Amino acid sequence: MTSQPDNSNTSEQPSELELLIQPLLPDLWYPSESDEPIEFVTCYLKTEEPLTVSHIKDWLMLPPAVYVEEIPEADFWAPVTEEQEWFGDEEKQRAAQFIHLKTLLETHTTGRQVFRVGDTEIDVYLLGRTAEGSRAGLKTKVVET
User: Fold this and answer.
1) 3-state DSSP call for residue 31?
2) Lesser CB count within 10 Å: N end or C end of the chain?
3) pLDDT value for 83
């Protein structure tokens, strides 16, 4: 069993970013072979340079055997923000929520990176640097068999 990092915000008050993002997350699911919820996460890593796979493994306290890779941020957003011809009202509303979420993260964070952790049930972290210097973003899961 892998222990999970403390993703709680270190201050007692939620950050401005968290207050903006949290209302968008209920009932917002990331699609894969199983639709998964999205969570707001914070990360204590304050390194100036871009995060590496090693940083993520250390943060999550993962053993070396666990596969971690960085992917382009666009790959995270493409399945949820690009409208398809077959979209009904519900799918269009979901895409609009994801576009709003993307805009908030682009406005309030810099240096965003996406990391995939694991093989079949993959934890996906989108982390960016906040104005305060910490890192925050989203966590979800994708299932690929």
Assistant:
1) coil
2) N
3) 82
Spell out the long-range contacts of 25-28 with Cβ–Cβ below 8 A and sequence spacing 24 or more. 28/94, 28/97, 28/98, 28/101
DSSP, collapsed to helix, strand or coil, labels residue 23 as helix
DSSP string, 38-96: -EEEEE----SSPP-HHHHHHHHT--TTS-EEEE-HHHHHHHHHS--TT--HHHHHHHH
- Scored b (16 or more CB within 10 A) or e, 120-136 reads eebbbbbbbbbeeebbb
Give the integer Cα–Cα distance in Å for 15 and 133.
12
pLDDT digits (tens, 9 = 90+) for 37-68: 999 999 988 888 999 999 999 999 999 999 99
